[in-house]
Amino acid sequence: MGTFPQTIHFIGSNMPRRMEIAIRDLDVEGTIPAEIDGAFFRAVPDNAHAPIYEDDIALNADGMISRFAIRDGAVDFDIRYVQTDRYKAEKEARRLAAEEARRVAAENARLAKEEVERLREERRLAAEEARRAAEAQAMREVAEAAATLVRQVEAHKALTAETQAPRAAEAMVDGGGDAAAPPHDATAPGEPEESKPRKRRGAKKKSLTEPSPPAT
User: Fold this and answer.
1) What distances in angstroms separate CA 49 from CA 16, 54, 75, one per listed residue?
2) Rg (CA), the chain
3) What are the backbone dihedrals phi and psi of residue 59, each rounded to the nearest 5 degrees, phi first?
4) What is the pLDDT of residues 145-182, one digit of tens each?
5) 3-state secondary structure (DSSP) of residue 18
6) Could you give the C-alpha distances from 89 to 61, 86, 208, 213, in angstroms and in order?
7) DSSP secondary structure letter of residue 211
């Protein structure tokens, strides 16, 4: 479009200045203190060309810098456009480069999408790291619990052994030492019954008073 839309962004105090100026030795009322020596800058948007779209805003256009330079009690004033590649191309063409505007918009959209994807990836990695840390902590807690249980079992075994040892010793003393050995004529384990010696039937016991037979 060749004219500025009559919206709040381009009327009144927001009306684009569309000019670069330099004024030296502004009129000063009073006296500027000698301690004031420097410059005051102001950055504002200012459309050098009418926008493409009716509902566009001034922030999508060119940037302008104004300056009050103060030195030795004198004041100079300057306004300059920011010399971007876009501004230079449009100044040379004397119009707003619609194609360039679309390219810039597409590039901005791409960068915004990449930033969103980057943030999502960072959140995903952070969540994954937190999950791994939680799993590692859980495994450490399980290992510590298992080690504690093993120590408790070993302590219980040691205590049980200490308690049973005196009782076993007392039992051995009361029983006269080791258990009595089996009689000699007892059948050894696994030995058949026939292997035991038997007394002859009908044999009479020799009397101690029976006379001995005469010697021949």
Assistant:
1) 9, 13, 30
2) 57
3) -65, -15
4) 999 999 999 998 888 888 887 777 777 776 655 444 45
5) coil
6) 13, 5, 153, 160
7) P
Question: 122 to each of 119, 133, 185, how far by Cα in Å?
Answer: 5, 16, 90
Contact 45, 63 (CB under 8 A): yes
Strands 74-81 and 63-71: antiparallel
Tokens 């995903």, residue located: 124
Phi, psi torsion values for 104, nearest 5 degrees: -65, -45
Range 80-86 contact pairs with CB under 8 angstroms and sequence separation of 24 or more: 80/20, 81/20, 81/46, 81/48, 86/62
Q: Check if the beta carbon of residue 66 is closer than 8 Å to that of residue 78.
A: yes
How far apart CA 48 and CA 88 sit, in angstroms, is 11
pLDDT tens digits, one per residue of 73-104: 999 999 999 998 888 888 888 777 665 666 67
pLDDT, residue 57, reads: 80
pTM to 2 decimal places: 0.40
Which parts of 38-182 fold into alpha helices (H)? 85-93, 98-174
Alpha carbon distances (Å) from 137 to 8, 20, 148, 159: 59, 65, 16, 33
Closest CA to 90 of 51, 42, 44, 54: 51
Q: Is 213 helix (H, G, I), strand (E, B) or coil?
A: coil
